[in-house]
Amino acid sequence: MDTSQIHGTTSTIKNSLFSKIKRFFAAVLLADSVIGLAINVFIENLNKKGVLGLGSDFQANQMVWGESIWLNILHLAILGITAGIFGFIFGYLSKRVSLAEKIIFTFFYVFIKLIFVALFSVIIEFFIPSAAATWNDVIGSSIYFITSSAFNATFVILGYILMFLSAIYFIDRGSDLINDPYYTRDKSVNGTLLDVKWFHFLWLFIPITIYIQVICNLIYQVGDTIVNLVRNFKWHTLFGFSDGDNGNALDVAWGSLLFIFFMAISIFYLMDYLRKVLSGETRQHWIIKLLISIVIGFAIPFLMIYFTSVAG
Fold first, then answer.
1. SS3 per-residue string spanning 144-201
2. What pLDDT shows up at residue 49?
3. CA–CA dist 207, 297 (Å, integer)
4. Is residue 22 a contact partner of residue 289, using CB atoms and an 8 Å limit?
5. Strands 192-193, 196-197: parallel, antiparallel or unpaired by DSSP?
């Protein structure tokens, strides 16, 4: 029996350490700088509308969201989801990740901001000593903010624990999916996600961030419209009668949802077509593909932001 093909297939599944480092940064970028950033912008927009009530100085990247238990539970959920997305993408792109590698890469993911803060502190101390005192005051204030309150310290610690566990768990889920013999996508080319090479996501973060914001706004606007419709719905609404200056509640809800769904469907179509261009499913000259990628990836999202508030 010839086992060369079996051995050859198995050998291509295990990536080198350097390849995993590249895929680690791609996963971090997609999880935090794209999806996480889009969700944070959406949360900040909700706060500006007065929905969350966290004040005008609130920023979603803060370690603790006010003094509300429920808002901090929401924050923990977002941290867990973002870490899970990182773990799934990293495991999916890497295909095989040992236990030691899972722990090491997850540790760097969870504490990467603290690592950068420490490196930045060393750089300031040696190369910009005039700014060292101010920077040390900022670090000291942050440490005091956490340690001076049991409430703050609890949610910060819970956030790190949840991120670590979520990333570890979903690394296995990503590896399991890509290695499932019944799963056929991304098997022919190594290091692809939705048939798109991992390095393309290093420049796609701008349009994907905008797309995610639109999706978050779509979910929120649909829920908000349904709630307002239920609140304002009266027996005469079905017959087209208006409710004072507010108009007919059913017409208002339908007009809002129609516009939002039209925007979302258009965006999903553009995303799918851009994926087909980058994965080579379409047959065009590479210059045409480049122009299409630029137009879809950058021009249309910026026009969407300029002409409508739905994009966030």
1. HHHHCCHHHHHHHHHHHHHHHHHHHHHHHHHHHHHCCCCCCCCCCCCCEECCEEHHHH
2. 77
3. 5
4. no
5. antiparallel
Asked if the model's pLDDT at residue 257 lies above 70, the reply is: no
Q: Give the residue, 76 or 195, on which the prediction is more confident.
A: 76
Q: Angle at the Cα of 91 (from 36 to 73), degrees rounded to 5?
A: 35
Coarse DSSP helix, strand, coil percentages of the chain, rounded to the nearest 5 percent: 75, 0, 20
Structure tokens at 191: 């290091």
Q: What is the pTM of this model?
A: 0.70
Tens digit of each residue's pLDDT (9 = 90 or more) over 96-118: 888 888 999 999 888 887 887 77
Within 8 A by CB and 6+ apart from 139, the residues are 117, 121
For residues 165 and 158, the answer to whether their CB atoms sit within 8 Å is: no
Are 124 and 139 within 8 A, CB to CB?
A: no
Query: Hey, which residues does 193 pair with through a beta bridge?
Result: 196
What is d(CA 151, CA 21) in angstroms, rounded to the nearest whole number?
36
Angle at 23 between CA 9 and CA 110, to 5 degrees: 130
pLDDT in tens, 4-55: 444 444 334 455 777 888 888 888 888 887 778 778 888 888 888 777 888 8
CA 114: distance to chain centroid? 20
Nearest to 33 by CA among 70, 82, 74: 82
